[in-house]
Structure formats: structure tokens, C-alpha cells
Amino acid sequence: MAQLWGGRFTKETDKLVYNFNASISFDKKMFKQDVEGSRAHVKMLAKQGILTDDEKNQILSGLDGIYDDVLSGKLEITDEYEDIHSFVEANLIERIGEAGKKLHTGRSRNDQVALDMKLYTRDEICEINGLLKELLETLIKLMEENLDTYMPGFTHLQKAQPITLAHHMGAYFEMFKRDRQRLDDIYRRMNYCPLGSGALAGTTYPLDREYTAQLLSFEGATLNSMDSVADRDYLIELLAAMSTIMMHLSRFCEEIIIWNSNEYRFVEIDDAYSTGSSIMPQKKNPDIAELIRGKTGRVYGAFVSLLTTMKGIPLAYNKDMQEDKELTFDAIDTVKGCIALFTGMLKTIRFNKDIMRTSAMKGFTNATDAADYLVNKGVAFRDAHGIIGRLVLYCIDKDKAIDELSLDELKAICPVFEEDIYEAISLETCVNKRTTIGAPSPDAMREIIKINREYLKNS
Q1: Which member of 156, 168, 197, 305 is catalytic?
Q2: Is 277 a catalytic residue?
Q3: Which one of 25, 217, 261, 277 is the catalytic residue?
Q4: pLDDT in tens, 308-342
Q5: Residues 6+ apart with CB under 8 A from 60
Q6: CATH classification (class only), 110-149+161-192+221-356
Q7: Which residues, 6+ apart, have CB-to-CB distance to 336 below 8 Å?
Q8: More confident residue, 277 or 60
Q9: Residue 5's pLDDT band (boundaries 50, 70, 90)?
Q10: Which of 23, 27, 122, 176 is the most buried (most CB within 10 A)?
Q11: What's residue 11's pLDDT?
């Protein structure tokens, strides 16, 4: 059992206790970041005269060798070591001898793990952000291609007013754009370097923390050594942001599942993103959409778990905080996988445009516009509302859409109707006359697409 401590102890840790305490099984994911942080720390120590240039070069060469050997598979990270830090340091000492023992000068595992986790999280934020950008590129392409694809808009899962598929996709574009902005905010807020904070009270060595921060592309050094090793706010923020991403994906998946049903038939999911039934040969199930919807709860669980873990922890570092890693690692992997799969599904999905248009016509989505027509003819809105309500009842009884009624049928309910009612309540008119910013008309949507294309170009 390779440990970085032991002088204070007179007997070896119980094997069960050691295994319970060890984190190597999951914190090996931070191997790259641990080596990266150690390289910067060694360069800073040499700059400050704490290490000689020869010692620095030996350590850097040793770290490079360990890094290359792990990546090539020549060196394996095993549970012989308590954590990733002890793995790197033990192998370094084995390779270069005495100089390797000086790697840990001026730092603690507390500030070291705080650094590793920040570096890892920062890298993963960039990856998630990139995946979201690809999803946004897919959405904006769908928007551009479907400015005239009419469909019903819904409230309460009831058909409400006609919109376009471009407008519907645009709503999700805004959601995922906000998700990227949240990730950007978290990145900026967390981008301060904790290394040099020691266990909790800094160190007597003349470290140049700003230089270390600069080497690692941080904005600067953290300003309180206790907070530096005790802070997990950025992980809680990331888990909250990822929970919101999953909520957006889940809502979208829920709609695709509904649209894929026999009753709607708005979409045809590609075979690559569907499965069949073991007993019912006619089935084509939207399994990927359902799994993404299901995995949302997994990410929510990680968020609530870390909040619960942190709520009773006094300053500064406590071993409870080791629980942050498995939760966060799993949530990050889940979110990345879900975004990638969802984007692939969306790229290959086929929209049944004729069925969507017919659904909008059959669902009385133009009823509001019919009421507006009467208002423009001088009928009070409240009276117009009641007239159109009676008209809808008549249509339901006759199994017709409003614009399928003859002018005589319309006049029998309200004599104000004239021939121009048909133009006034066509899907094209209902959509095209809604021209305010954010509305579904093609002209309004083109302006939004232009704005969002510029956003994607600059983000």
C-alpha cells in the first residue's frame, strides 16, 4: 500500500479501512491534471530557488516519462496506490531517486487535489460547451430549413396556435444557448488557482502563487487558503448547470417521444436511434430519447448528493469531500454522452411535414385569429370569444376544421363573417402576420437566425 504519510503511525492501516479510504479507483481520471499541476509547481519552485535547475529538470523529465508510459499502456495505474497523487510521486521517486522526494515541497494533498479537480472540471466544461455548440448548429440548420413548416403550438399539451417547426426549434436553441452561458459563467468564477494554499494555512516557503496560476492559465491565485481547500461551490454550480442541461434535453426528448407515437406521427426516428421489441414485431421504440429522459434523474441525484454532503462540513478540508469526485465524474460522463447521442438523433430525424400541417388545421389553432377577425369587424372581444367557442363546438360536431366550413355555415353562427375570413385564418396568415421579434413569422425568424448565427460565430 503506497502512501504519502505514515511516520506518525506505528502500525499499518487495516486493509478494509485502506480500501474504504482510497480514491485511486476514480481519481485516476485526473492523472493528466495531476501531472500538469506538478509540472507547474516544480517550475515555480525552481524559479523561487527552492529547487535547483538540475532538480527541476530531473523531476520534469521523470514526470514526462510517467505521463508517456501511462498513455502508451506501458505503466498501469493500479489500486496498489492510495490515490493518483501517491501513484505519480511514488513512481517519480522510483525513477529519479532523491530529487523525486522534493516534488511535494510547499504543497499539501489538500491544495493538490483542489487544483486537480479544478483543472479537470475546467477541461470538462470546455468539452460540454463544445458539444452544446454542435447541438446548436444542428438546431439552427433545422430552423433555416423549416421556416414554412407549419405545426401546432401547444399549451397544456392542447393544440393552441399555429407556429412553424423553425419557431419550435428556436425555443430549444434559446435554452441550450443559456446553458452555454451558464457554463461560461462557472468557468470565469472558478478560474483561480488554489495551489500554494497548503493544507489550510499556506506555507512558509516563498512560493510565487501568481506565477503558478499563470503557468496553468488561471486568472490569478485564490485569496484565502482555507476557502481554497474547502471550496466545492464550482462543482455544485456545474452540477446545477448540468441538471438544467439534462432538464432541457429531457423536455425535448419527451416531445420527440410524443411526436413519434402512432397518434401523432410528427417524426420518424432513424433506425440507428431506435430499437425493436422482443415480442412485438411492429414496434419501433424511441429508446435513446427515453434513456436520456431517464438519465436526467441520475444527474439530479449527483447535484443533490453533493449539496447534502457539503451542508454540514466545517472549515477547512474534511474527508467527506472525497465524495465529490465519483458523483461529478459520473454526471459529466452522463451529460456528455446524452448531448452527443441527442444531437445524432436530431440530425437524422425525419419530420412528417404534411401530418404536422394537417394537425395544426384540425386542432382549431386558428381560433384566436378567427376571434381577432371578428374584433376587426367591430365585434367586442368578449362576444367574439363566445362566438368562436360556439363555432368550434359546431366544427367538432361536424368533424370539420373552421376553414372547411362554408360561408353559409359561418354566417349562420355570426352574420359578420365574409369571404375574407378564409384568408384571415389560413395557417400562412396566422403565422406570417406575427412579425414582432421572437414571433414565428418567417421574417421574424430570419432576423433571429441572423442574430444566433452571429452568436455561434463569436462563441
Answers
A1: 156
A2: yes
A3: 277
A4: 999 999 999 999 999 999 999 999 999 999 999 99
A5: 39, 42, 43
A6: mainly alpha
A7: 124, 127, 128, 131
A8: 60
A9: very low
A10: 27
A11: 52
